[in-house]
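User: quick one, sequence for these C-alpha cells?
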C-alpha cells in the first residue's frame, strides 16, 4: 500500500501542475479576446497580409489557420511568421 502512494502522489502532483498550467495559459490568452488580427508573411509567395487568429471555446489553444489571399496556400501554426 505504501509503495502505491509513493508512486501515485508524485504522479498526481505532476498531472495537477500540468492541468493548472494549461488553465492559467488559457486564462491569460482569453484576456486578449476571442479573436485578433496579426500581420503575417505567406511562406509560399512571401506576401504580407493580415490574418485573424480565433479562440474557440472548446479549444485550449488559439487556432492559427489562414488561407493566403494571394496564392490560396493554407498557412498553419507551423509556418506562421508574425511580422
Ligand atoms: Zn501566398
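Assistant:
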Amino acid at each position: 500500500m505504501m509503495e502505491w502512494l509513493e508512486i501515485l502522489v508524485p504522479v498526481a502532483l505532476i498531472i495537477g501542475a500540468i492541468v493548472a498550467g494549461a488553465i492559467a495559459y488559457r486564462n491569460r490568452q482569453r484576456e486578449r479576446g476571442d479573436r485578433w488580427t496579426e500581420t503575417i508573411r505567406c511562406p509560399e509567395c512571401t506576401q504580407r497580409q493580415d490574418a485573424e487568429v480565433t479562440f474557440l471555446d472548446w479549444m485550449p489553444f488559439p487556432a492559427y489557420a489562414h488561407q493566403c489571399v494571394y496564392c490560396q496556400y493554407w498557412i498553419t501554426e507551423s509556418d506562421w511568421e508574425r511580422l
